[in-house]
Known about the structure:
Blueprint: H1 3-23, H2 29-49, H3 57-78, H4 89-101, H5 104-117
Helix pairs in contact: 1-2, 2-3, 3-5
Amino acid sequence: xxxxxxxxxxxxxxxxxxxxxxxxxxxxxxxxxxxxxxxxxxxxxxxxxxxxxxxxxxxxxxxxxxxxxxxxxxxxxxxxxxxxxxxxxxxxxxxxxxxxxxxxxxxxxxxxxxxxxx
Length: 118
């Protein structure tokens, strides 16, 4: 599996999910904007610096992991199962699935770190 393609597409997916949540007025706006900032900045740093010999990739991975942990903490604090209406349970499951998709960057970074450095 090519790490570059997975990472780039995953960051695009994360921004799309955040834009969807903003459009549907889900959660606090500032939380969604901070998460978009994390994903876009990580995407830009990676795409602008990959392939350069002077790019400290290990430092980038640790910083990105820390940023994604912050994004997940914000998402968990922003998401509430109590807001799922009884009549719209299907939509609640879709929103829950979208929130769970946000764990993918963190999981993949941890798998990449353990594969590369273990």
